[in-house]
Design goal:
There is one protein chain. The chain is α/β, with parallel strands linked by helices and about 170 residues long. The protein folds into 2 domains: about 40 residues; about 120 residues. About 40% of the residues lie in helices and about 20% in strands. The chain contains 6 helices and 7 strands; from the N terminus they run H-H-E-E-E-E-H-H-H-E-H-E-E. Strands 1, 2, 3, 4, 5, 6 and 7 form a 7-stranded mixed sheet that branches. Helix 4 crosses helix 6. The longest helix has 18 residues.
C-alpha cells in the first residue's frame, strides 16, 4: 500500500514528537534553594520585641528600631526582667525599698554574667523598658533610677510605632 504525501508528513511529525523533552527538576530545585536563602537572609530585618497581652504599649512615632537588649516588662500587676517576675508594681508604687533592691540585685546578676566587658562598657549597658500605658510615671522613674545605679545607662522605652501602614514595635532611646 502506497502512502500519500500527507500521511508520510504526519508519520514524520509523529516520529519527531515521540521524544518529548522531560521536565528538569534539578534547575527548578536550585532556583527554590536560592529563593529560600534569600528570604531567610532578608527576613531578619524585621525587629519585633516580645509582646505580651497584658502590656498595652503607648503609641508614639519613634524612629529608632528596636535593639536586642535586656528587657524589663512592667505590667499593671508586676515587674519582670527577661520574663522572670521580680516584684509587684504596687510595691514600687508604695516605695518599698526591698522591691527596688530586688530589682537592683537582679540587674547586678545580669551585668555580672557578661564577663568580657570593660569598666566603661559596664557603666553604659543598654536596657529596654516595656511598660504598660496605664503604669504611672513614678513607677517607671524608680525603675529607670535602679537601672542607672547598676550601670544600665542606655535606656530605651518600648512603644507601639504608629505608621501609615499599620503599627509595629519600636523602642525610643533616651
Amino acid at each position: 500500500m502506497k502512502k500519500s504525501a500527507r500521511s508520510k508528513r504526519m508519520a514524520r511529525h509523529h516520529r519527531r514528537n515521540q521524544s518529548k523533552s522531560k521536565l528538569s527538576l534539578v534547575s527548578l530545585m536550585d532556583i527554590f534553594t536560592i529563593l529560600v536563602f534569600f528570604l531567610m537572609l532578608n527576613a531578619s530585618d524585621v525587629q519585633v520585641l516580645q509582646s505580651d497581652d497584658t502590656v498595652k504599649l503607648p503609641v508614639s512615632t519613634a524612629d529608632a528600631p528596636a535593639k536586642e537588649t535586656l528587657l524589663i516588662m512592667v505590667t499593671r500587676e508586676q515587674v519582670m526582667l527577661q520574663g522572670k517576675p521580680i516584684t509587684t508594681t504596687a510595691a514600687l508604687q508604695d516605695a518599698q525599698t526591698n522591691a527596688i533592691d530586688d530589682l537592683k540585685s537582679e540587674l547586678d546578676y545580669h551585668s555580672a554574667r557578661r564577663v568580657n566587658l570593660s569598666e566603661i562598657e559596664k557603666q553604659q549597658q543598654s536596657i529596654t523598658i516595656m511598660g504598660d500605658s496605664s503604669v504611672t510615671f513614678s513607677v517607671l522613674k524608680k525603675i529607670m533610677q535602679a537601672c542607672a545605679s547598676t550601670g544600665y545607662t542606655n535606656l530605651a522605652l518600648a512603644v507601639e510605632n504608629k505608621t501609615d501602614t499599620g503599627s509595629a514595635l519600636s523602642s525610643g532611646g533616651s
